[in-house]
Every structure is written in C-alpha cells, then in structure tokens.
Amino acid sequence: xxxxxxxxxxxDVSALARMLGREIGTAGEKPSHVELLNILxxxxxxxxxxxxxxxxxxxxxxxxxxxxxxxxxxxxxxxxARTARHFDAAGRLARWPSKASQRDLALWALWSRLPRGVxxxxxxxxxxxxxxxxxxxxxxxxxxxxxxxxxxxxRDGRQYRRVEQAPPGEALALIRHLGRRAAH
Length: 184
Hints:
This protein is mainly alpha-helical. It is 54% helix and 5% strand. It contains eight helices and three strands, in the order αααααβααββα. Strands 1-3-2 form a three-stranded antiparallel beta sheet. The chain starts with 12 loop residues before the first helix and ends with a helix.
C-alpha cells in the first residue's frame, strides 16, 4: 500500500530551526519517528501531525471537488441557420432534414417544446408533436426523440417523459433563434 505524500511548507526557516532546536533539546533523548513528525507539524503551525495530515487531506478533497469549468464548444452558426430553414415562420418544423446533423438540432428544438417533469400518454405526445410540425408524421418524430435519448418511454410505450439535460450550444442557438422568429 502506498503512503500519501503531504507537501511540507514552513513560512519562516529561522523560526522552524529555533522551534526544532527547542523541541529536540527538551526531549532529552533522541525523538522517535512519531515525535519528529509532531515536532515538524508544530513548527509549521499545526497542533500535531494528525492535524497537519487532516488539513492536507481536506485540501486535496476540496481541490478534487473543484472541477475545471468546461470551455463551451464553438457554435457553428452556419449549421444553425441551415437547420432553421427547415422551420416555418411560426417555428414549426416544416420538413424533415435529410442531414443527420440538422435532424439532431431539429430534435432539440422539438424537445424544448415538450413539457418538463410531466409524464404523458402516447396520444398526448403525438398531439404535442403534431402541433410542432407540418409534414404529418408525429410517430417518426417521437421515435427519433426516444432514439436520441431526449424522450424516455416505458417498455410498453404507453408513457413518455422528456429527459432533462443541457442542450449543446448549437441547439441552444437554434431554440433561441426560433423563439425570437416566432415572437415577431
């Protein structure tokens, strides 16, 4: 089993040397390993080695918990604009995109219009999707939403629920664009 490594820092080397001299001088005999650890910990401002170790462990846990902020991927506005052409002025999907990348974005737009946190029957989902497109195939849209992991369904296909997740940047851009366009 490997031992954890704890960095040791003393702010003032002179104070460290004085403290070590005093502690070792009062010990009378050669200090044991544990006594040396406690002396070094006290010289660095801790109560004992256990206190020093607890502080280092807590610092490591806090540092591990601080996840670096992910840098968002650049948004391909050309792809967003090309996908937006498949929607009419009211924001409804007018035609099914032939390119998979555009279909994926279109599905995110449909996903954003489904109610969150609500379990729906198959007919309700079909009704909602029928209102959001103009080519008459809510079954196709429902299947693609389930396959993409945007819509959850029971094994028997009777109940559906929107899967809550953060849309990618391009999907957010399309959703916002369609919302502004429909508002005008």
